Amino acid sequence: MAIAETTYFKSERCLVTSTRVVLDGVTYPMANITSVRKHKLEINRTAPLCMGAIGALMTFAAFDTGRYGLAVLGVPLAALAVFIWRSQKPKYVVVLGTAGQDTDTMGSVDGQEIAAIVDAITKAIIGRG
Fold first, then answer.
1. Rounded distance, CA 66 to CA 9, Å?
2. What's the CATH number where 114 sits?
3. What is the pLDDT of residues 27-39, one digit of tens each?
4. Cα(83)–Cα(88) distance, integer angstroms
């Protein structure tokens, strides 16, 4: 007699049932999953920081030396750096733990979606007993 598969969560990119987890098309058997957590990946802000610093230095140098052509390049460069900085969003990933290792699986900038998936996997782990 087959045991019915209970669905805990379903979306376009994810399926969590009592027997399996499918994340971005990759299937993980629930029997092998020992833990699950949400992890926030840090944003690399080196590029916009360097761009902003160069743009600001060009602009200050332009006003200091009277060569205002540098400001024509410096101000847009600094503005672009601010735009890039503000448009960067943190990425959240589902980390599945097995007996051997932790694996980063599905990622998204939507932290609530990842939290819902982690919650569903946790319920599935608890449900199997």
1. 63
2. 2.30.29.30
3. 999 888 999 999 9
4. 9
Query: Coil, strand or helix: which one is 114?
Result: helix
Enter the tokens of residue 47: 């590029």
Q: Domain for residue 26, yes or no?
A: yes
Number of domains in the chain: 2
Query: 34 CB contacts (<8 Å, ≥6 apart)?
Result: 97, 98, 99, 125
Please give the pLDDT value at position 2.
Answer: 54
Rg of the Cα trace of the chain? 23
Question: CB of 41 within 8 A of CB of 105?
Answer: no
Q: Does the reported pTM lie above 0.85?
A: no
17: enclosing H helix or E strand:
strand 14-17
C-beta of residue 107 within 8 angstroms of C-beta of residue 117: no
Q: 42-72, pLDDT tens digit by residue? A: 899 999 999 999 999 999 888 888 888 888 8
Which tokens in the block code for residue 69? 């052509």
Structure token digits, residue 27: 């299937």
- Name the residue range of residue 23's domain: 7-42+91-127
